[in-house]
Amino acid sequence: MTKAEVLLWIQLKNKRLLGQRLLRQYSIGSYMVDFYIPKLKLAIEVDGGTHSTEEEKQYDRGRQEDIESLGIQFIRCTNLGVYNDMNNLLERIKEEVKQRTQ
Questions:
Q1: Percent of the chain with pLDDT over 90
Q2: Is the Cβ–Cβ distance between 20 and 96 less than 8 Å?
Q3: Domains in the chain and their CATH numbers?
C-alpha cells in the first residue's frame, strides 16, 4: 500500500464507514482495487503519480470499464486528495455509501 492508501485505510477500517465491511487490495478478475465494499459493489481507488501519463490513464479507463461491467461502481481520488482534503474525501465516500444502502 502507498502512504496515501495507508492514511485512507486508517480512516475507513474496522467498519468506520457507516458500518460497512471494507477490504483492501481486493482482486476482481485479473485486476486489483485499492479498497472494496463487497455488499455495495463499490471500489475505491487512490491514484498516485504513476497514473498521470496518457498510457496509464488509458489503461485505468479500460480497467475501470471492465470492472464496472460487473456492476461495480468506482470512486476515484488522488494521493493529493488524501493528503490535502481527507475530510471532503471521506464525506464523498460516505455519501456514496448512503446512496447505495437506501
A1: 75
A2: no
A3: 3-93 (3.40.960.10)
- How far, in Å, CA of 15 to CA of 61, rounded? 29
Q: Report residue 69 as a C-alpha cell.
A: 461491467
Question: Which residue, 1, 47, 43, is CA-closest to 20?
Answer: 43
Q: Cell match 502507498: residue?
A: 2
Report which residue type is found at 89: L
Mean pLDDT score across all residues of the chain:
91
Q: According to the 3-state scheme, what is the secondary structure of the chain? A: CCHHHHHHHHHHCCCCCCCCCCEEEEEECCEEEEEEEHHHCEEEEEECHHHCCHHHHHHHHHHHHHHHCCCCEEEEEEHHHHHHCHHHHHHHHHHHHHHHHC
Q: What is the pLDDT of residues 29-82, one digit of tens each?
A: 999 999 999 999 999 999 876 667 888 889 989 999 999 999 999 999 999 999
